[in-house]
Amino acid sequence: MKENFQNFTVLGYYICSIMDTPNYLSGISAKMISASECLCDHQPQLHLCAGWKPQGDNEDYRKKWHLTSDEYQMMSTKINRLFEEKLFYSDGRFIRKEDAVSFYKTYFYCPETILICLKTDKKNVSKLDSEFTCIQEENGISSSQELIGYDIIGWDMGGFHSFLCNSLNKEFNNLKFTSLGLLEMNYQEVERIAQMIQGKGEPVDWIPCKLEKVELK
Fold this sequence. Notes:
alpha+beta; seven-stranded antiparallel beta sheet; 9 strands; single chain; two-stranded antiparallel sheet
């Protein structure tokens, strides 16, 4: 997938569970990922970790990821510490790549998950509200990570919505999607679509973003 150079800003890193595409989005792809919690589970799910009530200390969640009791407790302790230090947020967003890679390799590495980096052109940062303070600059350096597609997202109440949450894809006749439900076109085309859907769907500022698969080196 090719793209013209942009001065991208890193918004965060997500360990995405590869989800079945909901029925209302049938025809896009069989599976999908997103930075939106409406469409995709992100790991770890903080409210299911040890110490969080009423859903924490969740035995089903521990077993789902084949964690021993000790591993589950250690993972929970680590992620709670990152949360307290504002290096991890409840929507599943890691701020530092090294933390995301460590959790992915240690606890969630399997064919049903993928570790992604979420980016947008730095000019879109002003569209994120004052709560969104943890942003990393790339300083115009081209990334060697694998580009896997694009999404259009908006920040709302501590998490992202995708334009797909409200089926805004149906406003257009010629959109192409990857096997993971991401837009398959160049960034300039995604920018144009984002402009055309402003004021529609969720009450957010829609911003184009790209998703890259993080290398595990």
